[in-house]
Design brief:
Structural class: mainly alpha
Distance between the termini: 66 Å
Shape: globular
Radius of gyration: 24 Å
Strand content: 5-15%
Bound molecules: flavin-adenine dinucleotide, ligand DLZ, iron/sulfur cluster
Helix content: 40-55%
Largest sheet: 5 strands, parallel
Strand order of the largest sheet: 3-2-1-4-5
């Protein structure tokens, strides 16, 4: 009887995955493997590895219960199986497979290997299926992109709203407005009250994996003890319900807020599940839209949330597959500074940065504004090599996969591609951070000054950034006001000297 292997990756843990729909459970065999190469190509946060391994083990168990034949390789550091292909090769020696089937993977590095080398190395046909967990395929995005000179997310998003019908009525956006971003910039000062993220009881599979990660990856930075992520689909569905019930109604208003000691506010914490397959984008958007129609959540919240998934998430994936592999080397500002050590130790006196690092290391999580406007903003202002900061973002978050991390880091944070995603860089001084958070109240630096010994480092670095890149940004119509302000500053020389001095001893900040 003819039999095929279906290889399922750690971020493809979905029961309706294209591979599973394509194969026949009566004759084909599913392969899954925990391997060294995937778990060390960056120094992933221990919680990210534990989430993936445990979710893989639970998923394999569910497949077996449904009648699939599954061959599963648990992690063994000294095994000969270092890479995914090694496991396929081993199974080939045991079972007479006639082909390998795989759903298109999320990272270029692995997809390239599979497309270009696996068939000849295995001497087997390798069929690659489209990943239909997304609303927009790379081919559809390419077609969309070919019609526009500037690839603005907003235009793409409107097209996706029309295609899916989310929050639409007779081809028009509900409320006669596509985007409620302007309503979504409130600061939070204690009300409405916050609900703690759900924590899930650990079962034996979770405990075994935690023990394994502790033992095998001791050098990876991040706490394993605080693992609170769901590792099964049923628990991920509970996390979705928890978000819709408690946080979605306020998601819009406080989307950009940051609060000392509060790590999650009204955010969903769903990205790790969306990205590894425990949840799919459609069911999450459906649940949010239903909450609007039932009167549970207001339009600005639901539109804001759906835009993140239907808009940003799909858009960055499209950009990634459109622009790779050259994209990964983008560096139009010619940045080369080393990533400061505090990105790995978390030790800095800058309270805003220390808070983001604490959240990151404790929970393998930081919300979007912490990533973009604090740790990202600092890397932009201090001229960090885009590849080093990209590697950091890929390592430290439970939701990090290159297809989503790279465009956010290179384009949105580092402006490394010259402004594909954003018409101006997301550079900000301490003034913005003070406006959107209460971090500065807890900080030894003075957010009001620029060039004193205790001045907020973001202030001089911000103006130094504008001065250094005058030739690039002055002509940008969205930055005219900033340059008019810069021209009026009397202390430019002191700013330059102060910023250069900070950068020369950046690890002391
Ligand atoms: P919420 O605030 O609740 O948002 C809801 C969902 O919208 C998220 O779960 C996510 O799926 C989606 N989303 C929101 N913003 C974005 C965005 N900019 N791009 C893509 N999807 C988005 N997201 C990842 O999933 N993986 C990454 O590796 C990743 N790296 C990032 C790196 C940088 C430098 C920046 C600035 C952002 C990055 N993001 C990444 C986007 C965003 O920060 C996270 O998706 C979000 O913080 C996840 O938390 P949440 O689920 O609570 O999100
Ligand atoms: C992230 C990750 C890790 C840490 N480990 C594994 C693994 O051992 N086996 C596996 O199949 N997948 C793992 N993954 C997810 C892959 O890295 C991911 O599938 C690719 O990067 C493609 O997106
Ligand atoms: Fe951050 Fe500056 Fe505020 Fe300190 S004063 S928290 S460094 S913005």
């Amino acid at each position: 009887m003819f039999m095929r292997f279906g290889l399922i990756l750690g971020d493809q843990l979905h029961h309706q995955l294209a591979t599973l729909k394509f194969l026949n459970r009566a004759q084909d065999v599913i392969l899954m493997a925990e391997v060294l190469e995937e778990s060390t190509y960056v120094a992933h946060h221990p919680q990210k590895i534990a989430l993936i391994f445990s979710a893989m083990r639970h998923f394999a168990k569910e497949l077996k219960a449904q009648g699939w034949r599954v061959r599963y390789h648990p992690f063994q550091r000294d095994s000969r199986i270092h890479k995914l292909i090694d496991f396929v090769h081993l199974q080939q020696q045991l079972l007479p497979a006639t082909a390998v089937v795989i759903t298109h993977c999320g990272e270029y590095r692995l997809q390239y290997e599979i497309e270009n080398h696996w068939s000849s190395q295995l001497q087997l046909p390798v069929h690659c299926l489209d990943d239909d967990r997304f609303f927009c395929s790379p081919a559809q995005f390419r077609q969309w992109a070919s019609r526009y000179h500037t690839l603005r997310m907003e235009y793409f998003y409107r097209e996706m709203r029309k295609q899916t019908g989310y929050l639409m009525q007779q081809q028009q956006p509900l409320g006669q407005q596509w985007n409620y971003d302007r309503d979504n910039r409130k600061t939070w000062s204690g009300k409405p009250s916050l609900t703690a993220p759900l924590r899930f009881e650990l079962d034996q599979i979770d405990l075994d994996v935690i023990e394994l990660v502790r033992r095998e990856f001791p050098q990876h930075i991040g706490d394993i003890a605080n693992l609170r992520w769901a590792t099964t689909r049923s628990n991920a569905l509970l996390a979705l319900q928890h978000f819709i019930a408690n946080n979605l109604p306020h998601f819009g208003d406080y989307q950009d807020a940051m609060v000392y000691g509060e790590d999650t506010l009204f955010h969903s914490l769903l990205s790790p599940y969306l990205n590894c397959g425990l949840l799919v984008a459609k069911e999450v958007c459906d649940a949010a839209e239903a909450a609007y129609h039932s009167g549970h959540a207001p339009l600005n919240a639901v539109e804001g949330f759906i835009r993140q998934i239907l808009g940003w998430r799909e858009y960055v994936r499209g950009i990634y597959w459109l622009r790779m592999p050259e994209y990964a080397n983008s560096n139009v500002l010619n940045y080369s500074a080393a990533l400061p050590q505090f990105y790995w130790t978390g030790r800095t006196q800058m309270t805003c940065m220390a808070e983001c690092f604490r959240n990151t290391f404790e929970h393998a999580y930081a919300h979007h504004i912490q990533r973009l406007m604090i740790t990202g903003n600092f890397a932009l202002l201090s001229g960090v090599d885009p590849q080093q900061i990209s590697e950091w973002y890929l390592a430290v978050y439970a939701d990090a996969y290159e297809w989503v991390e790279l465009p956010n880091t290179l384009s949105m944070v580092m402006h490394a591609d010259g402004g594909l995603l954003a018409s101006k860089p997301y550079a900000a001084s301490g003034n913005y951070i003070q406006k959107m958070s209460n971090y500065c109240k807890h900080c030894p630096y003075n957010v009001k000054t620029r060039t004193e010994a205790d001045s907020c480092p973001f202030n001089s670095l911000y103006w130094y950034f504008m001065i250094k890149h005058d030739g690039v940004f002055r002509s940008n119509p969205r930055m005219g006001m900033i340059y008019r302000q810069l021209d009026k500053l009397q202390d430019k020389d002191q700013i330059i000297a102060h910023a250069q001095q900070l950068l020369s001893q950046v690890n002391e900040l």
